[in-house]
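Subject: Sanity check before I submit

Could someone independently write out the structure tokens for this chain? I want to compare against mine line by line before I put it in a report. The sequence has 145 residues.
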Amino acid sequence: MALERTFAIIKPDAVKNNHVGDILTIVEQNGFRLLGMKPAVAINPHTPVELLKDILEDLYHVLIMSVNPGFGGQSFIPHTLEKVKELKKMISKTGREILIEVDGGITLENAPILVQSGADILVAGSSIFQAKDPKETIRLLKRIT
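---
Independent answer below. Compare away.
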């Protein structure tokens, strides 16, 4: 299933001084909303989800990196699970539907608990492409609810 939304994903680590308010300023100044894009934020493994508390209600999507970006085949960082749970609680308090995506180290073993913890979208790369039967791995991942 393809996403029906187009997102402008900005990493807080890329914003000067990690000031989260600057993220939304960038979105507005560049006319992302006028282009039909919705603001989203990607956070690295070392970035706490609390950083998003002041802008969460303005977001449509949060990507939690569960490995350090840039290198395929890394193992899932276990504390990501707690970040997903914490973010889901924060989102619930807003009363809004904000997607949670997790990218990195996703496997058939950790995908079910991530979905149960609140993840809406999982990005699996190596676990599919290094599988003996990639089609079967994709089929199994799609069945996880």
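---
OP: Matches mine. For the report I'm noting this point. Helices lie at 21-29, 80-94, 111-117, 126-129, 134-142.
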